[in-house]
Amino acid sequence: MTPNQNHGVRYTGLIDKYRDRLPLSADVHAVSLGEGATPLIKLQNVSRLLAVDVEIYVKFEGVNPTGSFKDRGMTVAVTKAVEQGSRAVICASTGNTSASAAAYAARGGLKALVLIPEGNIALGKLAQAMMHGAKVIQIQGNFDHGMALVKSLAENAPVTLVNSVNPYRLQGQKTIAFEIVEELGRAPDYHCLPVGNAGNITAHWIGYTECARNAGDETTAACGFCDGHCSLTRQRTIQHRPTLVGYQAAGAAPFIANQFVDHPETVATAIRIGRPQSWEFAWTASRESGGWFSSVTDEQILRTQKLLAEQEGVFCEPASAASIAGLIGDLEQGKIEEGSIIVCTVTGHGLKDPDTAIELSAKPVTVPAQQDAVRKIVMEHLDG
Ligand code: AN7
After folding, report:
1. ∠ CA 68-73-79 to the nearest 5 degrees?
2. Please, what sign has the CA dihedral across residues 90, 93, 97, 100?
3. CA distance 249 to 264
4. Which of 59, 197, 201, 269 to mutate to test the pocket of ligand 1 (most atoms within 8 A of CB)?
5. How far apart are CA 270 and CA 345, in angstroms?
6. What value, to the nearest 5°, has the Cα angle with vertex 262 and ends 261 and 267?
7. Which atom of ligand 1 is nearest to the CA of 282?
8. Tens-binned pLDDT, residue by residue, of the chain (384 aa)
């Protein structure tokens, strides 16, 4: 048997990788499922179709352990909850937070309670929360109602709130920026992402800001990841921060209306949110980065979800497609200049929401199990 060449470098999650840049003690045991280190995929076919001279990368957060970016924050929040002696976590959720909380609670030996809007969460997410053994509480209301409930509950009951108002969540989620800067050797010019509760855009800004701060003085400082001898340090481009562009679904777009929305509606149930908890932080991030918010229609979202799946092999959920849908609109309007390097966060996996995917796609054909019947379909498809 050949010895394992990789022995000793097994990837064990983002806490072990970035512990010195997280507010955790050096020896705390990480509650981890190996989250982070997600692929940064350069778009090829979509970029060609757009015929604009820009580089577009998608950071595919759908391949995290529970299928969304939430795992980055949950590993830190649950690690901290365990360290502090908590016995249970609670959250309100449009689906992904509940799936992640349920999984990390299971891993950490905690109970989980999740509040979800009845009838408005994607099937895969519901299955996850149920399967991991969380207590699933469906409320006859939307995410914003659930959020108000869990905030007051957590003040009076022995449970740790793990929505993104828990600061450890954002600390974990900031690591996406670290990975991107390491992978590209610099920060992108633009970073596009879907915005719901606005925790993630806030976390991205914290992360990029820390990268820039670590890069420090242009002529003397190390890149922030090494002792001053790596290629990043030599390139000296790491210190700039991207322009952040946040996209919301048109029916749930408080940042575009510049006021809370009482009855948010969108096919992208993950971002069906009217009262974002990180409202002020997100405005600050947007302003400091020189960025903006835009909205995309449900029709644009679904068309782009399908485009990414068919043209690039990237299957994301509807909310995640909002970032690329919005980017396409802004490129068409000339808001992003040629030559730009752009990263889009693709926040969740398409398998989360099989109902929407099946509705968007051509139905399977049924034929007898016979050579000529199958052959006829094959030939028709090849000619099509
Ligand atoms: C796939 O799970 O709010 O702006 O409760 O699941 O940080 O809220 C999910 C949000 C984007 C928006 N994409 O991120 C929840 C929840 C996907 C998401 C967002 C969510 P934030």
Report:
1. 125
2. positive
3. 9
4. 197
5. 14
6. 75
7. 4
8. 455 555 668 999 999 999 999 999 999 999 999 999 999 999 999 988 998 999 999 999 999 999 999 999 999 999 999 999 999 999 999 999 999 999 999 999 999 999 999 999 999 999 999 999 999 999 999 999 999 999 999 999 999 999 999 999 999 999 999 999 999 999 999 999 999 999 999 999 999 999 998 876 444 444 455 555 555 554 444 458 999 999 999 999 999 999 999 999 999 999 999 999 999 999 999 999 999 999 999 999 999 999 999 999 999 999 999 999 999 999 999 999 999 999 999 999 999 999 999 999 999 999 999 999 999 999 999 998
Distance, CA of 201 to CA of 365 (rounded, Å): 42
d(CA 82, CA 64): 21
How far is ligand 1, taken at its centre, from the CA of residue 196, in Å? 6
Ligand 1 atom 8, closest CA: 197
Q: Ligand 1, residue 100: give the atom nearest the CA.
A: 2
Answer whether 116's CB lies under 8 Å from 89's CB: no
Tell the residue nearest (CA) to atom 20 of ligand 1. Answer: 270
- From the centroid of its chain, how far is CA 357? 19
Kindly give the distance from the C-alpha atom of residue 103 to the centroid of ligand 1, in angstroms, as a whole number: 17
Q: Could you tell me if the CB of 242 is within 6 A of ligand 1? A: no
Q: Is the CB of 317 under 6 A from ligand 1?
A: yes
CA of residue 197 to ligand 1 center, whole Å:
6
Nearest CA-CA partner of 60 in 341, 360, 324: 324
Q: Is the pTM of this model over 0.85?
A: yes
Neighbours of 50 (CB within 10 A): 15
